[in-house]
Amino acid sequence: MGATPPSSRRSLRRRWITLFGATALAVTAGGALACPAGAAGTNVDFATHCIPPAVAGLPPIDGTTTAGVSVDNTSPKVGDTVTVTYTVVTAAAANPTELALPADIMTPTGKVTLGGAQTGDVTVAGPKKNPPVPGKAAFPSFSMTGTFTVTKPGRITLSPGDYNIHTSYIMELDTPCTVTTPPAPVSETVTATSGTPANTRTISLSSASGDPGAGVTVTGGNFTPGASVTLAGRAGDRQTADTATVTANAQGSFSGSLVVNDRTTTGIVAYEGGSWSADTGAGPAAYVVNDTTPVPPGSQKLTTSVKPGTLAMSQAGDSVALAAVDFGQGGASTGKLQTVTVKDFRGGPAGWSLTARVTDFSGPGAKIDAGRLSWTPACATKAGSPSTCKAGSAGAVGGSGATLAQTPNGTLTGGEFTVDAGLSLDVPAFTPPGAYSGVLTLTLT
Description:
Blueprint: H1 6-20, E1 33-35, E2 43-50, E3 61-71, E4 81-90, E5 106-116, E6 120-125, E7 142-149, E8 154-169, E9 171-179, E10 188-192, E11 202-205, E12 209-210, E13 214-221, E14 228-235, E15 238-247, E16 254-260, E17 267-272, E18 281-286, E19 288-289, E20 311-315, E21 331-336, E22 340-344, E23 353-358, E24 361-362, E25 367-368, E26 373-381, E27 390-391, E28 395-396, E29 402-406, E30 415-427, E31 438-444
InterPro entries: TAT_signal (IPR006311)
Organism: Streptomyces monashensis
Keywords: Signal
């Protein structure tokens, strides 16, 4: 194979720089259903140090990033889950060449720094989605989302942090951008109030099965120090007669034995107080009582097992384009939620609930309140499913959220379900012309 002519090498080098010298892209919020992109909070400027991939042949870029952080709930309670959106409005660099960048080649990730009453980092991510970027043009903004659980009451500050652009075009490369003097300025603040603390209690079993009358060791953690803890068998949604009592030590841990006699046992739980509660207990951990019935002479005993699965959801897409309305008239901007599929293959007694919250719709110098988005939910159950889903009520979604669909607890639950909803945003008549966007975040529990 002959040597590459100098002119071809220069052309190839220009293409490499164009492909990998980028530091920003436009994306919709990862993990959320966007209409079509997340709304930024108060924007702040901070010095940023970006390192293009070595193959690009570019030196490090020291510039200014303009970004904002927003949340779906500025007044959460302890134990609530808060959804965070990190929007980079202006990255520290622009397309350095005359050549255009292709669409949908980059995926952003990053972190948001917490301060005040609660410290730490919130990991955020966006999907692989960006429009083409003309040569020498500024890069469009991009958004990333993540969640954190409120653990302490008080004022919690949120600052934009480091971010990284991963490119998937010819090669897999990264462009990390770090905050030069961390933390960056505060962009958003939430004020958390006292509430029900998040239940972090856990249990594990020494064995997932045993003969009738055998003991199983139950080990627990994160219970109230010194609390009396009941160990109990469960048969679906009812408690069996097999119980034992242990005491949590000063660290909230324990280890105790439970003798299991009931052949219908499907799991074991541990809880504080006089009766089972998901707020003060842990489990159920799956447990099976072996069938030790003797086999009659001349017979063969055949056995099998069914493994429990998981509760998961998927959605048909991550953006919804609502119909445009006319300035001076306003009215209903309508659309349809991207279909959500819920698969419940746990095989236990618990049902599920699918809820959603929406942010305000931000646009050119104005916003449309989240309370103006309403929906009409619908839910269909696949034939043969043990559970039957129920659609949530029609009405406003809002920042506080509403139920989209759910299934009840039962002796045996599970199945496959499809969830839809008609969407309608009530746009005020003289809303300034332009594009408005908000983020609808779905939560399955």
